[in-house]
Amino acid sequence: MALLFGAIGVLALVSRTGCTGNANGLGTNGVSEADYPDMDLGLAHRGPHFDVAYSRNVTALVGKTAQLNCRVHDLGNRTVSWIRHRDIHLLTSGRMTYTSDQRFISVHNPHTEDWILKIRFPQRRDSGIYECQVGTTPPIGHRMYLSVVEPLTTILGGPELFINMGSTINLTCVVQHSPEPPPAIRWTHHDEEINYDSPRGGVSVITEKGETTTSHLLVQKAKAPDSGRYTCAPANANPRSVIVHVLSGEHPAAMQHGGQLRLQYPISAVLLSIIVTITGC
To answer: In sequence order, which residues have a C-beta less than 8 Å from that of residue 242 and are 6 or more positions away?
Structure first.
């Protein structure tokens, strides 16, 4: 019986979207603005209906289990199915799974009205529209958009920085594309967590959280032992490392000045050298 409702649901979905399964008329959040009279027009509900406040779009991290929640009131003995719009594929019906991809699981607690589609180890290719469908006659459905993102961690000026002894090491770590600011960012030096209260002193961190999170590691009056690998490790993103060289009287091709990476030799001087070499003058 569950399979029959699922098949009816898929046929109804195909009749709405076309055989290609291409969802036209997408709204600003990427979800098709389908017409479901019993859900969208605010009429008195008779029979099953969706609680859209608890059935929203989801942003998930690559590799971290994602959950799409569908809350259905007055379901009765109807069956809830999950359908992936990308290929019009019936993923689950009731608590049964109808895909060979075992990452997809249907979860339902009989004491709740929530039907959850759980996706283990999601990848960016799993992003797209998913529909929670109820096996009424005709079937009704509510669409949600799953966005699977991979946070990006960068350290400005890397992978190597050269600074003069006695100046300030200023490392800036930037975390982007994270669904929420990282709860914590760890800085390490040679794989050991930096102790800001160490006898050395002059070491501090300034972190600004937001849609893009920035963390600044400041090491004043740099000394030779301050050279080495520094790693920025956000709690919800991949770590990133940079190699710092503290120099005494040496002049490499690149130096850090006030947190910026600059060429020591002007481009005009380099061009002049090339011209002299070519002309033999």
So the answer is: 155, 157, 158, 159, 160, 161, 171, 229, 230
111, part of any domain: yes
168-179 tens-digit pLDDT: 999 999 998 887
pLDDT digits (tens, 9 = 90+) for 86-101: 999 999 999 999 999 9
CA 168 to chain centre: 33
Q: Let me know: does 13 contact 133? Beta carbons within 8 Å.
A: yes
**Closest C-alpha among 164, 213, 222 to residue 189:** 222
Range of the domain at 198: 152-247
Task: Tell me, yes or no, whether 170 and 226 share the same domain.
Answer: yes
Let me know whether 186 and 242 are in one domain: yes
Q: How many CB atoms within 10 Å of residue 115? A: 25
User: Domain boundary residue among 100, 117, 149?
Assistant: 149
Q: Are residues 142 and 159 in the same domain?
A: no
Residues 119 and 103: beta-carbon distance below 8 Å: yes
What DSSP string runs through 188-250? EETTEE--TTSTT--EEEEEE-SSSEEEEEEE-S--GGG-EEEEEEETTS--EEEEEEEESS-
Domain identity same for 57 and 137: yes
Q: Is the same domain home to 104 and 145?
A: yes
Q: What is the pTM of this model?
A: 0.55
The alpha carbons of the chain give a radius of gyration, in whole angstroms, of 28
